[in-house]
Amino acid sequence: MTKEEVSMIGFEIVAYSGDARSKLLLAVEKAKQKDFTECDKLISEANDCLNDAHKSQTELLQLEARGENIDIGFITVHAQDHLMTTILLKDIINNLLDIYR
């Protein structure tokens, strides 16, 4: 896989996790307004985005596991960081939403 292809997967991960992050933060705003129907919808959409990000991440992991040489650049490192911080945010927000409910 070329470095450009790996970078594109990195961009996918950033985009999906960025969308999830935005939806999670908006879900908190909806919870503050006691709009739990919209809050739950946003949480579900955020989970879908994170699942898509994981699929892209898994693609890279499978390539490496098969022994393919993957040229990891800063974009891929940034993507991994972005995904992991969004997953952490999801965990924190889920606990916070319990308080709002």
TrEMBL record:
Keyword GTP-binding assigned: no
CDD domains associated with the record: PTS_IIA_lac (cd00215)
Keywords: Cytoplasm, Magnesium, Metal-binding, Phosphoprotein, Phosphotransferase system, Sugar transport, Transferase, Transport
Chief place of localization: cytoplasm
Signal peptide range: none
Cofactor dependence: Mg(2+)
Official protein name in the record: PTS system lactose-specific EIIA component
Native species: Catenibacterium faecis
